[in-house]
Amino acid sequence: MDKLKQYIVLTVLGSIVVLAAGWFLLVSPKRSEAAELRAQAETQQGANAQLRTQLTVLKAQAKDLPKQQAKLAAVAAKIPDNPALPALIRALVTASTSAGVELISVTPGAPTAGAPAAAAAPVAPPAGAAAPAPGAAAAAAPVGVAGQLATIPLSLNVAGGYFQIQTLLANLENLPRSMRVTTFSLAPGANPLKKQTSSSAEDGRTLTTTITGQVFMAANRPPATPVIVPGQAVVGTNTGPIAPVAPAKK
Is the overall model pTM greater than 0.85, yes or no? Predict the structure, then answer.
C-alpha cells in the first residue's frame, strides 16, 4: 500500500514537472511572442491610420492640382525661359495699335541676372575659424543658372496724343508678358513716320515719348507643360527664335 502511494505521488509530481516544463518551454514563449505580435499589430494599425489620413489629404489636393498647374503655366507664359522677343514685340505692337499711338522703335538689351535676395545678418565665426571673404555671400548668380530670374532692359519710342499715351501705359500693365515700366518722358514733336504738313507740325498735340522698363525671363527653366482645365483654355509658354521685326507703319 505504501508503494502504491509513493507511485501515485511520484506520478503526480512527474506530471506537475512535465506541465511546468511545457509551460516554460512552449506556452510561455508563445504567449510572449503573441504579445509582441499584438503590439506590432497595434503599431502598424496606427501607422496605417496615419497613411489613410495622408492619402485623404493628397486626394483632396489632387482635385485642385489642374487649376494650380494652369496658374503656374500662366506665370510661365509671362516669364518665359528665353527672351522671346518676337512674341514680346507683337504684344507691344498690339498694345500701341489699341492705344492709337505710333510705335516708332523697340530697343531691347541683353539679359542680366536679377538682384539676389537680401542676405541674413552675418554671424561671427567661432574662435579659431577663418572668416569668410568679404562680399562672397553677396555675389549674384550669373545668368544661365537653372531658374535664375533675369531682367531684359527695354526702351520704347512712341508718338501720339497725351491721352493715347496714357492708354498705352495702361495697356503695358496688361501685357501677356510681365513688364515693369521704370521711367518715361514726354516732349512735343512730330511723328517721324508720318508726312507732316505745315498746319500739323506746329499744333503741339503730338508728343514723342520714350518709355524705359524691364521684362523678365527665367534662365534654363524647363518649359511649362500645357494643362487642360475644364472651362479654361490651354495655357503654355511663348518661345521661338529671336528675329528682327520692322516697326509698324500707318
Answer: no
> What own/partner pairs with CB < 8 Å and gap ≥ 24 does 91-94 have?
91/175, 91/176, 91/177, 92/156, 92/175, 93/245, 93/248
What per-residue confidence (pLDDT) applies to 247? 43
Helix axes 65-78, 28-63, angle to 10 degrees: 50
* Neighbouring-strand partners of residue 102: 159
Q: pLDDT for 89-148, tens place per residue?
A: 999 999 999 999 999 999 999 988 865 544 444 445 445 444 444 443 334 445 556 667
The domain segmentation of the chain, as residue ranges, is 1-42, 80-114+146-219
* Main-chain dihedrals φ then ψ at residue 226, nearest 5 degrees: -60, 140
DSSP-derived secondary structure for 98-138: HHT-EEEEEEE---EEPPPPPPPPP-PPPTTPPPPPTTSTT
What topology is assigned to 80-114+146-219 in CATH?
Answer: Alpha-Beta Plaits (3.30.70)
Contact 89, 157 (CB under 8 A): no
State which amino acid sits at residue 105.
S
Cα→Cα distances 28→36, 50, 142, 149, Å? 12, 33, 70, 69
Instruction: Read off the C-alpha cell for 34.
Output: 503573441
60 backbone dihedrals φ, ψ, rounded to 5°: -65, -40
CA distance 170 to 185: 16
Q: Which three cell numbers stand for residue 97?
A: 495699335
Q: Bridge partners of 181?
A: 213
